[in-house]
Each structure stands twice: as structure tokens, then as C-alpha cells.
Task: structure prediction
Amino acid sequence: MVKGGGLQRKSKASQEIPSSSMADIAFLLLIFFMVSTVFQKDTNRPIEWAQAEATEKIDQKQKNIQNIWLDPNGDVYINDVQTSMEEVSAIIAPMYRVNRELVVSIRSDRTVPYRYIDAVQQELVAAGLLRVVFATELEQDMTRERR
Result:
């Protein structure tokens, strides 16, 4: 006499990991990270660039360049956030500790009083930063031609 209707249960677990959908999963993860990644881009400000007879293009990756914008009234912008002059070294110092290739590009209107530029330079010295450049009209023209 057979109990249970004569059906035998096969309860063996498979020893293999199914790999047929691994490519699909990897592709979906790739798409997810591409869509959710935010690339930070500084907002260009309408300023009258300082002129220079000669300039040198910054030969660094964009991630190694930190732009600091100065307005004629002394406002300082780092990452599009207005900061006080006294906070510049506190913001830049940790960035420089993490990335020793960091170059700060001071971007200011030609009408900015020198005392503000000097104050930013003193803050950068206090942060221990070694490489500072000044953006000029000639550099902007070179960048536009390259595009």
C-alpha cells in the first residue's frame, strides 16, 4: 500500500549559483549609478575677467581644481555657496588634506579691490595650500577655443 498518492518528493537543493541573470543585474546597477550620480559644476558668474599678456592652461583634472569666486563687494563663493572670508581656510584645509594635488583658481572681477584678493590669499596660506592660480580673460578665451 502506497501512502500519499504515490508521489515522491525530490528535495535536493542545487549546488550552483544561477548566473543567467548576472549580466542583467550588472547592467541595471550600471544604469542606476549613471542616473543617480550628480556632477558638480560651478555656476559661471558674469564678471569682467582680469587681462593678461600671457597665461598658462591649468594642466590638472577638473576634480583637482577648486574655484573660488570673489565679487567686488568682497563676497566669497566656494562651491556656489557664499562664505565669509574667515571661513575660507576652514573649508579649503580639509580638501587639501584629502587631495594634495588640489589647485585653487581665484576667479574675480577686474574691479575687485586688492585687499579682498590678498585676504583670500592669506586664508589659503593659513590652510597650507601651495598651488594658487588667477583666472584671466586670456585663459577663458583658450578654454572657449578648445571646446
